[in-house]
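Intended use. Records like the one below are meant for learning the mapping from a protein sequence to its folded structure. Do not use them to infer anything beyond what is encoded.
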Amino acid sequence: MADTNLAHAVEATYGSSSYDANVKFLLADKQILAWILKYAVQEFKEIPIEDIMTSIGEDIEIGTRPLDAGLSNMGRVNISGTEDNIPGEGKIFFDIRFTAYHRETEMKFLINLEAQRSSNPGKLGYHLENRIIFYLARMISAQKQTEFYHSDYDSLKKVRSIWLCLDNSEDGDSIEEIYLDTNTVYGNKRKPYDIDLMRGIVINVRSGENIKDSQNILISMLEKLLSKSSVEEKKCILTEKYGMVMTTELEGRMQTMCNWSEAIMEMSYKEGLEKGIAEGIEKGVEKGIEKGIEKGIEKERLNAIQRMIQADLTKAQIMSCGYTEEEFAEVESILCANA
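Structure written out for the chain above:
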């Protein structure tokens, strides 16, 4: 039994050195794109996820290549075509772009998806809203000689630029829109023409651990997807809570310990090693080092169980990810004590 593309994409993000690059491949999976369209783009909100997936074109383009060998082409994305070079306007590079078709209206949408580590003007040196407007304008102007010719401006396709901002505080989860509108400043109001050609959408997800689930289902899913949880934990949550199609390890071969990303694993070992060395020096025994490492790993496993309980997974679902009865009972006891 082979894992789906999404399962491979989740595993591609496993590792500190490749996380930033490969997260774009994770977002480029058609299941994830369909979720984003349904819950962030108004025209798709009444369409089932499965139908949105089939409406997404095969022209998904991504601006970065995964670093792990064998994952440069997962059958869902193209590497080329993300550079937009218009003479006299300079170059810009899109993270992900693709087309989607609204079959009821036979309308074609040109979509751009960006993952933004920070939206703080102090860090960026500019206001993100202005960059979004610039991207939208480029997506419109780039249609000349591709989507329309000569003066056939009514053939312009709608563009949607979606930005995932990943640095928000615990109460910062939100979705915002930037769009054109008409306003009659004098005289009789005439029937307005629909100018909803360009719309920017900002999805603010939160950073940090042990945050409560967002009340918005899309933000909640994205926060689980982009968290530093283990591969198996993500698979369990995405499958059981959000109904995504994804297989895990063959039965009986579930991992017995949490597969943290390289960055988290290295931090855990380093923390445990430092504690262990200090304890070993103090006591004069080498066992202090081993004990410190074990404590670091044990703490991370308990934190993972706590997050899964807070994500409303059942005990059976959590146990299927390789955790023990004793670990589950210990976390339940801690949660009850803190309630």
